[in-house]
Amino acid sequence: MMPFSELIRNATARNKSHLCVGLDPDPEKFPDHLSKDINGARTFVESIIDSTSDLVCCYKPNCGFFEQFGWEGVQMLEELRSMIPAHIPMLLDAKRSDIGNTATAYAKSAFDVIRADAITVNPLLGRDSIEPFTIYKSKGVFLLALTSNPGAADFQLPNDLHYQVCDFASSMATNCPEVALVAGATRPDDLREIRERFPNGLILVPGVGSQGGELEETIKAGSRHDDLGLIINVSRAVLYASSGKDFAEAARDAASHFREQINNAISATA
Amino acid sequence: MMPFSELIRNATARNKSHLCVGLDPDPEKFPDHLSKDINGARTFVESIIDSTSDLVCCYKPNCGFFEQFGWEGVQMLEELRSMIPAHIPMLLDAKRSDIGNTATAYAKSAFDVIRADAITVNPLLGRDSIEPFTIYKSKGVFLLALTSNPGAADFQLPNDLHYQVCDFASSMATNCPEVALVAGATRPDDLREIRERFPNGLILVPGVGSQGGELEETIKAGSRHDDLGLIINVSRAVLYASSGKDFAEAARDAASHFREQINNAISATA
To answer: Which residue in A16, A36, A95, A220 is the catalytic one?
Structure first.
């Protein structure tokens, strides 16, 4: 099975894109003509994929948004790998955070049942919460290193905690080269330090778009020595670019715009 | 809708029990005569519930173990609230860890779709990751305060982090009286401090049984001023007490044994 990083490299080469589109089907935001149930969700997600799949390097379905539709949402999650063209990898945003045989069960769900090519994991429970995923050697395992939400200040966590996660990921990478990181885009200085401590792997950067990180700064700060090594995620700004019947075209225009912005920023910082 | 703590109080009174049985359907451990698929899982879980429901104060289905069966496992999770007698509350062990509208979607899945009476949450992303659950006023929201897994040492988290979680839960409890804690049973000194900092709410204590915490010490350390205020969880030692055709009876014997042990320990420490 092809390693996740290679799937990304191939999709990037084919579509000239470092853009990942997050699939967060939120019935409150569906175009008016779609039903707010599982049927509407299916039409919505299929249309988004059809209209953007030549513009992205990855799709990132967000578990919670599917689970809210109940078992039918999970059934759709299982069908997603076939709905997405085979040459575009699928990264499951699950942020699972459990240990031992529970983590093993989550890994089985993500990789054997849903057939995701990669997953996001909250790493703070330590290696017992990560290794059940990394034993799937070819799968990407993205450790949450940095979030930019206000509530992150509710606990006095060490200032260097996200660097500890980077160092931990680096130390794992010898045996598990598909270990990767998630790092919010809002603090480029942090991203620079993260890249220094984690020089070789992929970094997923959410928060561009509706959260407004600065693209050029992000790319400058997070690029790898050999190539970008970043997956830039945009969700809402693509999915909900229009609430009319033209939502799929509007999503295509938005994705096209972001792809170009990213590529321009790469050229500008080269 | 009745608050979770009251559901627990009523079930405890009725069954004279502080025992919670964790529902972790693991096909590797099913009795030999059951199939290792969703049908085996359904028979297994139904039999366990039927044979123990007069001995427990709560059931704790563990999401991952259901999700590993794919959408059919999730469908079963949705049927579980009806399979469990109405007077026994159901606590969904999900350890979700996400923010904003993703957390809202997870809450919708847990409370509106699966109709759980309570959920476990990893609180370290802060209030943004908790409030989408606590707005369901009657539902129990159990914050993970202390784990006893070896990997917990992989990051240099503050020694008092679990106390910070307790203080945080206490401060939330004014507005959200159904906020509760999860605290591993292996360190009674910690549990004593946790109870001092979180005097009024429920504490779920896993790790009794196959992880071998000392029951009397645990009860002494964690009891509330007015009543126990503890939910003692046992999973494997009940579920997999026998791998033969007598598994349901063996589970009943084990649950009965644990209920008695707990009640004896309460009497001994009174």
So the answer is: A95
Give mean pLDDT, residues B142-151. 80
Helices (H), B84-208: 100-107, 131-134, 161-173, 188-197
Which helix (H) or strand (E) segment is B144 a member of?
A: strand B140-146
Q: Do the Cβ atoms of A158 and B158 come within 8 Å?
A: yes
Rounded to two decimals, the ipTM of the complex is 0.95
Q: Distance between CA atoms of A46 and A84, rounded to whole angstroms?
A: 8
Token duo for residue B38 = 């969703």
Q: 């790998």: which residue's tokens?
A: A81
C-alpha pair distances (Å), A70 with each of B73, B89, B115: 11, 20, 11
Residue A207 structure tokens:
């928060």
Taking contacts as CB-CB distances below 8 angstroms, the residues of chain B near A156 are 158, 164
Of B165, B181, B174, nearest to B224 by C-alpha is B181
- Chain A: residue nearest B114 by CA? A70
Q: A213 or B268: which carries more pLDDT confidence?
A: B268
Q: Are A18 and A230 in contact (CB under 8 A)?
A: yes
Beta carbons of B18 and B231 less than 8 angstroms apart: yes
Catalytic residue numbers of B?
A: 95
Cα separation, B251 vs B246, whole angstroms: 9
DSSP B31-67: -TTS-SSHHHHHHHHHHHHHHHTTT-SEEEEBHHHHH
CA-based nearest distance B255→chain A, Å? 22
The three-state secondary structure class of A95 is: strand
Considering the domain B4-269, what is its CATH architecture?
Alpha-Beta Barrel (3.20)
DSSP, res B179:
E
Radius of gyration of chain B (CA): 18
**What is the rounded distance in angstroms from the CA atom of residue A215 to the CA atom of residue A194?**
17
Average pLDDT, chain A: 93
Q: Is B188 in contact with B218 (CB distance < 8 Å)?
A: yes
Task: Please give the model's pTM, rounded to 2 decimal places.
Answer: 0.96
The two three-digit tokens of residue B168, written as one number: 């945080």
Instruction: Specify the pairing of strand A140-146 against strand A179-183.
Output: parallel
Dist CA B60 CA A102 (whole Å): 13
Q: Do A108 and B155 touch (CB under 8 A)?
A: no
Confirm whether A60 is a catalytic residue. no
| Residue closest to B130 by CA, chosen among B97, B84, B105, B165 | B97
Contact B164 A153 (CB under 8 A): no
